[in-house]
Specification:
This protein has 433 residues and is mainly α. Helices cover 76% and strands 0% of the residues. The radius of gyration is 21 Å and the shape is globular.
């Protein structure tokens, strides 16, 4: 594959992958879990800190190891089977579920905006997947440039809401101190549940490591894109949620999936509702494209090591565009099946659990490699070592353990789907030997 992705395009992929529907829809869930404005903002900030700590930590590996993506990082540190399982989980659950869920949200918002019958929302979602598949098949360079443009466009409505909200003269009091929870809420439960919900909105940044072999200067640009992208996203999330809470009282925000729409109506008038819906469409469109751009490379990376059946087909990229065509068809076909099956809340909760299990392993890998290979050239070193990696590891363990305690069946299903890859791995190992 050619090194054709610039720092700006890598940064746009990070921001575009993370900022999707969560920035508009999670406020209702989190306020229901915390019951207060101060705790709501606190869990957003805490989620940002954990994500940035994880990004800083894993960026050291991305800059040090001249290999492609988190799959290879796990291979290098723990052994090939762990890298394969991570790639397998990404291929059959993570990327298809993200693409499918976001496309479905796009379909629902699209039919609502244009007054189309609700039963056509799935058709719109599938057409979006097929359209973006065609765009990505044109070539990585084209789809990356388009991602940069979409990222800028999706920030515009968010920026308008934040700016209008901050200068709104009729603000509702939204105290940020003291740190309290609402009546009937316990402090530990509010933090754990609110943090889990907020962290879902940060999901997706690690997928940019799949582009390591295509970034022009991966030693510097990959880590910079991750760190700057997550820092900007944290600031955006905190500001827009604070805006929502100064426009609508917390009892109107609680469990309200239309909070962004209603807040915009108050800020901009009748035009505001349509504006925010267009903003959601642009935001979701960009997120789907970002997940598609990076997701199609997971089967390709696995097939390059002959770890999948028909690896000779899956592990090829188009000689003219550099696009792994078969990998794109695999991920998008599963995504379309998920659109037709529905129930994406379960899928997305499950994928967060699975992905944070591997994210935690990647954070621990930095500590392992520091001890095992002290002479390894590290163009980027995580600052304040080992404090930042420890924050990342503790945050990851908290997410995994909380999910097991609060959603035991869901966590077992996630583990089971991941372990389904083991028979394929050992079959291919035997065949290769």
């Amino acid at each position: 594959m050619k090194r054709q992705i610039s720092f700006g395009q890598a940064l746009a992929t990070v921001v575009g992958s993370v900022i999707g529907a969560g920035v508009f829809f999670k406020i209702g869930t989190i306020t229901a879990q915390t019951g207060s404005t101060s705790m709501t903002l606190f869990v957003w900030i805490l989620a940002g800190i954990i994500s940035i700590a994880s990004g800083l930590t894993i960026s050291e590996i991305a800059a040090s190891l001249k290999i492609n993506g988190a799959i290879k990082y796990l291979d290098y540190t723990y052994g090939r089977v762990w890298g394969f399982l991570f790639g397998w989980a990404q291929m059959i659950v993570y990327f298809p579920a993200q693409i499918g869920a976001l496309s479905s949200i796009f379909g629902v918002q699209f039919v609502s905006l244009f007054g189309i019958k609700a039963r056509y929302s799935n058709l719109i979602a599938i057409l979006l997947v097929l359209f973006l598949l065609g765009i990505n098949l044109i070539g990585t360079k084209f789809s990356s440039k388009m991602q940069s443009v979409i990222t800028i466009l999706k920030i515009i409505p968010i920026a308008l809401i934040i700016i209008w909200g901050l200068f709104n003269s009729a603000k509702i009091p939204a105290p940020i101190i003291p740190l309290t929870v609402g009546t009937g809420h316990s402090f530990p439960t509010a933090i754990s549940q609110g943090l889990l919900s907020a962290l879902f909105a940060f999901e997706g940044w690690i997928v940019v490591t799949n582009l390591a072999n295509e970034v022009k200067n991966p030693e510097k640009d990959l880590s910079r894109a991750i760190i700057l992208g997550l820092s900007a996203i944290t600031l955006i999330y905190v500001l827009i949620n604070y805006t929502f809470m100064t426009v609508l009282p917390i009892d109107q925000l609680t469990n309200n999936n239309n909070a962004a729409f209603q807040a915009s109506m108050k800020l901009f008038g009748q035009f505001g509702g349509k504006l925010v819906t267009v903003g959601i469409l642009i935001s979701v469109y960009g997120a789907v494209n970002a997940f598609m751009l990076t997701g199609m490379r997971t089967p390709y990376i696995l097939a390059q090591d002959n770890l999948l059946p028909f690896s000779n087909k899956i592990g090829k990229a188009n000689i003219h565009t550099g696009v792994p065509v078969v990998g794109a068809f695999i991920v998008d076909a599963i995504a379309i099946v998920m659109i037709l099956l529905g129930n994406f809340t379960v899928l997305t909760d499950m994928l967060v659990f699975v992905m944070w299990t591997f994210n935690t392993m990647l954070s621990v890998a930095v500590i392992i490699l520091r001890k095992r290979e002290p002479e390894l050239k590290r163009p980027f070193k995580v600052p304040w070592y080992p404090i930042i990696p420890i924050i990342s590891v503790i945050g990851g363990i908290f997410i995994v353990v909380s999910t097991i305690i609060n959603q035991f069946v869901l966590s077992i299903i996630g583990i089971g789907l991941t372990l389904l890859g083991l028979p394929i791995y050992y079959y291919m190992q035997k065949k290769n030997n």
